[in-house]
Amino acid sequence: QVQLVESGGGLVQAGGSLRLSCAASGRTFSSYAMGWFRQAPGKEREFIAVINWSGGNTAYADSVKGRFTISRDNAKNTVYLQMNSLKPEDTAIYYCAARPGPVIRTGAENFGFWGQGTRVTVSS
Fold it and tell me: CA 94 to CA 36: how far, in whole Å?
């Protein structure tokens, strides 16, 4: 079991940056692949980024590639999402999620543990 708590959301102007954090409970954090997803009003939850247990393997959605960076610090049980060059279309609630095991997946159905989300609003 792992519990996840996101933080770092807020209001930012287009072109700005935010860094989201997701703190995980439990002593087995390093055995989980971690992902970030987002859900905008009226839209389905969409995959943003995923990182494997060691941080050596990552994947991104095309919509954020080159702008967002996922990373993790296993000593701090925390995964991060650095978001640069933000656009109004990045406005959403951002969720982190955990998936046990070494293989990374991008579908939300592959993640069994979810945080409560943090809201990101990008103004034009």
Answer: 7
Which pLDDT does position 30 carry in this prediction?
A: 87
Q: SS3 for 54?
A: coil
Identify the pLDDT of residue 36.
98
What strand order describes the sheet that includes 78-83?
Answer: 4-7, 18-24, 78-83, 68-73
| Residue of 64, 66, 74, 75 whose CA lies nearest to 36 | 64
Angle, alpha carbons 54-35-104 (nearest 5°): 55
Spans in the chain with pLDDT lower than 50: none
Q: Which residues contact 75 (CB under 8 A, 6 or more apart)?
A: none
Q: Are 103 and 33 in contact (CB under 8 A)?
A: yes
The C-alpha atoms of residue 73 and residue 122 are separated, in whole angstroms, by 27
Question: For residue 70, what pLDDT is reported?
Answer: 98
